[in-house]
Design a protein that fits this description.
Layout lengths: L16 H17 L10 H17 L5 H13 L5 H19 L6 H25 L5 H28 L3 E6 L4 E4 L1 H7 L3 H5 L3 H4 L5 H13 L4 E9 L5 E12 L5 E10 H16 L9 H11 L7 E9 L2 H8 L1 H19 L4 E6 L2 E7 L4 H15 L3 E3 L2 E3 L3 E9 L5 H17 L5 E3 L2 H15 L1 H6 L3 E10 L5 E12 L3 E3 L1 H11 L2 H23 L5 E6 L1 H4 L4 H12 L6 E6 L2 H4 L2 H12 L3 E6 L7 H4 L7 E3 L2 H4 L7 H15 L5 E3 L5 H9 L2 E4 L11 H10 L1
Parallel strand pairs: 11-12, 14-16, 16-17, 17-18, 18-19, 19-20, 20-21
Antiparallel strand pairs: 1-2, 1-5, 3-4, 4-5, 6-8, 6-11, 7-8, 9-10, 13-14, 13-21, 14-15
Helix pairs in contact: 1-2, 1-4, 2-3, 2-5, 3-5, 4-5, 4-6, 5-6, 12-16, 13-14, 14-15, 17-19, 20-22, 22-24
Length: 711
Amino acid sequence: MKMVDHADTAAGGELGAFALARDEFARRWASALGETARSAGPRLVDLLAEHSGRLHAAVRHDPYPAASVQQVGRSLAEFDLDSATTLERSLAFLGEHLLAHFGLPAERTGRLMTVIGGIAAGYSDALRAHTLDQQEPTRSASVRTLRKAEAALRVSEAKLHAVFRTNAVAIALTGMDSEILDFNDALLAMLDYTADELTERTARELVHPDDRAAVTGITGALAAGTHENVRAELRLVRSDGETVPVFIAVSLVRDDAGAPAYHVTMIESLDEVRALQSQLVRQSLNDVQTGLANRAQFLGWLEGAVGAKGPDSVALAVFDVDGFRVVNDAFGHEVGNRVLTAVAGHLREVFDGVGQVARIGPDEFGVLLRDPADTPTVIALVEEAVDRLAEPVWVGENGIGVTASVGIVARPARGADAADLLRCADVTLRWAKDDGKAQWALYDPDRDRRTRSQLVLAASISGGLEQGDFRVDYEPVYALADRSLIAVEARLGWDHPEHGLLDPHALATLSACTGMAVRLGRWAMEQACRQAGAWFAEFGPAAPVLTMDLTARQCQEPELVAEVRRVLRESDLPAALLRFELGERLPALITEDQAEELGILAEHGVRFVLDQLGGGNVPPDRLRRIPLHGVKFQGSPVHGLAEGANPADESAAVALLGWARTLDVPLYAAGVGTPFEARRLRELGVTGAQGPLFGASPLTADEVRGLLGKS
């Protein structure tokens, strides 16, 4: 049964976690009553649910609501739940399950016993009231009613006595002069007395001498009526003279005249409570799998290290097991856990006595060193640990070894911030992974500032898109034969309020960090196609072809074909006027299914151009995977044809363009800067070009429209 804390219940009229737990408890209570409650009818569970909520509040909150608790007992009797077995089962069920079911602390056990006594008192009062209400005018009826009440009272007292005797919590009844009137077996076990030995003593003698004055104050407060019950911690003395720290809850019972009659004291050993608390604390601060401290405890270490009483300097190393998913996927989680345990063991061996080791993530470990000798010493320890991690863990015939990337931060401790220290270590760890894994990286504040600025920009992409800071500009592509406008390449730009216009290459890097590449690509395609559709509607066949990048990530989208066709349909743009440019690495990155989707788009009229950024040849078998309607060159294949270019560069450019002509598709060039380059490219079969020669910067949509109007 899942424990539910009443503090987490939902507000308002919604049925929250507490209401569900209360109703479940009522059903269990009704089940515990069994056949003894059959006459109660179908409303029994609703009644018990109401009482469960009232009893939960009485145990959990102060002050003790005596009248409310006694009303529960009266209600049970008034609901025909007046058999001896029913009361016994109710009291036993509440005593055993109420605290555990609602997740109440063991310290409320004393209050629970007071509540059980209140239920019995209310039950007894109800029976007496029932007796009076049912009196008949005749003497015989009065006698029968009296006998029934007396019998019920005897039953009630018997059941209370049974609960009293068998309760796991120690209970004592003491007179007003400290004499011991009654006690249960739990008290005998706690103090190691026999019943005869305990009867010969007074309650005051069982209390440690230093705590007796406190007990006198408690009984005085109860007698004065300022408190209905009092809870306190004190010490009792066992038969062998040893002291027992206990938590007590004392209530005063008065007679019919209102005079003090005796005390009921619930006693719980604090040794057991504290042992349980210590166990829970250990579990909450340690990793079960490796036995190391967990992230919560590690953060506590960091907070202490940068505090006023901490060391002068600290070093923090964060280890991340490279490719740990491969181990899990290949051998299963059980073997993965063995590997993690081995990693933890190696880190303990290396840093034992010089650092504190914790598991701070699924496959991540942190090491805190206080006042290290110097940074080279820390690096030497890290390198030793990395070397040890390569030692294989044998699983059958498989020797499984792992590598780790490590981020190291060393700085003065005073005035540092624990959260920022851990952030710096995480950033440095990412550098180590980005630089090739299986190595360490040392924190560099200048690099962090640059990286952090880029990350802030990356995280702000969504907001910029929402606020309309993004725009699409167009770089014209001209025919080299007659300088006519044949296409425009859409370029996504971010008009950032602080950093100005960010170019497409910067945007591609930023969007890859946050997974926004697909969303930005979809937005740019919708905007550019809508504008190209408007040009086509106005200028007809004279409208230019729209070209734009299609990334490998966009090719992974399962609805790529449907998305492109939707955009074309909504923008009224013919498919033949849309041309996607594919990076030179894309043919090797996409799957057969993704290449097939490109073929479907080609069948609908969409064109594809391979963008040879560096001029490297793509193997023919990979070219055959994609539909190809053109090849575009930029960089060295273009600049190698410049006037006065290095002969080797020129020869390579000529050879590359010669190879491209064998594909029998149109050739294009980007970054053309001089008329000489344009002439040489045309001589070698290039039909369209773009670059500084034709305009220094991309055009807005209105500028493209104006250009089309002039032509």
